[in-house]
Write a structure and sequence with these properties.
This protein is of the alpha+beta class and about 190 residues long. The chain contains 6 helices and 6 strands, in the order ααββαββββααα. Strands 1-2-6-5-4-3 form a 6-stranded antiparallel beta sheet, sandwiched between helices. The protein is globular, with a radius of gyration of 19 Å. The mean pLDDT is about 75.
Length: about 190
Amino acid sequence: SMGADITELEKNIGISIANDLLPAVGPDIAFYYRGISFKQDLPLPEFGFVCSSTDPPKLLRAFPKIGDYLLSFAKDKALKAEHKSITYKDIPIQVVQLAVPVSKKPAKISIAAAVVDKYFCVGFGAEQVKTMIDCLKHGHPLLKDQSQYKSISEGYPETINQTVYLDFDAFWQQVKSLLELYAQVNAPDKRD
């Protein structure tokens, strides 16, 4: 059951999701998706998650433990998560590289996280997190701080105000292509 899985996750990472992580998240949460990236061993979505936080370092400390836990489900128990820290524009980025069992050779993918001021950022790979750092530190103002958005959202309570833009047709075509590619990669080798 999902409840048992969450309890197992909490036991393994030593952190309570309800008591430790969720109170540190929000109220500002954003996701982005910009298509499929072919920069790692497997095609992955260019997907990022950013949230404001009352305790961003707590979220960053939990991040590598979750990668280790996810690897515990791999059939090959020799697979491990590699952890490293890099620095970009004086901001440390935590990188967890996972070996994903596909075909005969594991594909390496990385997930990265950083704290920028009061924001916690996560993306597939350090490059995506670097983009988030650039946006938060040197980019355009956040949507919620732009005058056009403020005029549209006027009168709505901040706690329920949500904005979503998604070109669903383009998104669905990319998801279908990716699923077809994964099916080909994981198809049994007829030469064996």
